Amino acid sequence: MKHSRLRIISRIRTGTAQLLPDGQGRGRLLLVFFSLFVLSLFAAPFILLAAGTAAAAPTRTVVVGGDRDYPPYEFIDRSGQPAGYNVDLTRAIAEVMGMKVEFRLGNWSQMREALQSGRVDVLQGMSYSAERSGEVDFSVPHAVVNHAIFGRKDNPSVNTLEELKGKTVAVHRGGIMHDYLLRQGLGDRLTLTDTPADALRMVASGKVEYAVVAIVPGMYMIRELKLSNLVPVVRNVATQRYCYAVDKGNVELLSRFNEGLAILKKTGQYDAIHNKWLGVVDTTPIDWWTIVKYAAVVVVPLFLLLSGFALWSRTLHRQVALRTADLTREIAERRQVEEELRLNQQQLVQADKMAALGVLVSGVAHEINNPTGIILLEAPILKRFHTDATKILERYFEENGDFTCGGLPYSRMRQEVPKSLAKIQDAGKRIKRIVDDLKDFARQDTTSGNDVIDLNTAAQAAVRLVEPTIRKATRNFSVGYRKGLPRVRGSRQRIEQVLVNLILNACQALPDPERGIELVTWHDAFRDSVVLRLRDEGTGIAPEHLSRLTDPFFTTKQDQGGTGLGLSVSAGIVKEHGGTLEFQSDGSGTTVTLTLPAHHKEVDA
């Protein structure tokens, strides 16, 4: 049928060429038009069929390949869909060019094989190289990729790719840097990974020393995977053009992507896509000239302004410094005077309280002496009466048997009454002794401090004064008085005051009654002195406080009403007697050692 149509057209051309203006020509012309009409009727069904076939033919889908693990350029997102800069750019090109695309993202080396085998039509992100251009055709670049060397923060520093020789390096299999490092002779130390993320993980875990990865994906994955021990050691070791790639000779498809890319750049869509994915993580280094230029704009005017202000304020600063020094000195002197006044007031208050307490103790002791005297007077009379009455009671008991006396059987009372009378008499003597000690302790010291005293006697009197406090504080109080101690010269009343203070402090340091206190005395013949040592098993004293224990008003028991005067006064008394007062603490108790010089009678020559 094709040859029949050609013969008809040939005849039409021949007939048209032979038309003549005579009657015969007009007849032939009518014949030609009639032939064309018949031909059109004959060919119309075929033309309509061809048009319908063309309209019914579907548009071919372009299969676009890419790497599934190369964020933010291209990757599979959490919902399992293709995402990234390359994906958005390809969709935009397909929209402006009227193409239908299908994405297939997978292992990069497999995607390269899929392009060669025809399973995909185009790779949407492939770095250009001369070697690769022999296998595929590249579009115009749509991005520039900078590659970096990543390492751990504690790794030795390197500055170039050449310095990686002899070191273990991880690199993405089939990537542009894999090809590049092979050409550089580093293939024997390379560790190939399926994804750039795997290369970074190997460095972070210490399996290899370095990884060569594009800087933008590298920083993106460090942030997303929280690989906080990785840093870019060198930020730009190679710069590659990033293009679309088609199989060799597929010029028609490549031209469509080039045209679509040009349209996106003209309409501004390309910039929007680039800024969306690469604008935040773009790490293009800023050149030094730009830094200096912007720094000069800010720093130079600021420097001039600060210099002028410094020159203007220098004189004022000197004047203010002089005046400030004067005021500081005046304030320090005033504070010192106020502190001394406060200390003096506290000393006066405490002295007044102690004087009032002495008067009160003296009065109370005098009042107690009256009933105590009656007890001591009547107790012996009762004992003598009981002795005489016992003879009569015993005869009655022998004749009549046991009987009740004072609510108890006489057989028991005849043993208990003598004991009770003896206890009453002893208790009266003890009350009198304590009262006498209190009166002596509270009495104003009118002696010159030249008495010859026995330290053991003073210690026993002090213990009797604070015996109720000792019983309440501990169940383990022990004493050891060395016999035959040399005498000491001084004031017995003031030495007792020192010992009372020391014993009270020891009692207050005990956390529970199971802890003990030990008091011992002895003669140190080597130093010819009399020594009293008091040790408690209390909480101890902090090392930084030991040197301040005898400072006036220093106390660690302020919450318990301590004034900080007891040890200060005691240290002063001991010093007046020519002795020493030493404190030791090891964290499990405190030891106080009182040393006084021994006094020997003068022997006449």
Automatic annotation (TrEMBL):
Residue runs in coiled coils: 327-354
InterPro entries reported for this sequence: HATPase_C_sf, HATPase_dom, His_kinase_dom, HisK_dim/P_dom, HisK_dim/P_sf, Sig_transdc_His_kin-like_C, Solute-binding_3/MltF_N
Keyword Phosphoprotein part of the UniProt annotation: yes
EC assignment: 2.7.13.3
Reactions catalysed according to its record: ATP + protein L-histidine = ADP + protein N-phospho-L-histidine
Transferase recorded as keyword: no
Species for this entry: Geomonas anaerohicana
Highest taxon listed in the record's lineage: Bacteria
Gene3D superfamilies: 1.10.287.130, Histidine kinase-like ATPase, C-terminal domain (3.30.565.10), Periplasmic binding protein-like II (3.40.190.10)
Record keywords: Coiled coil, Phosphoprotein
Transmembrane regions listed in the UniProt entry: none
Protein name per the record: histidine kinase
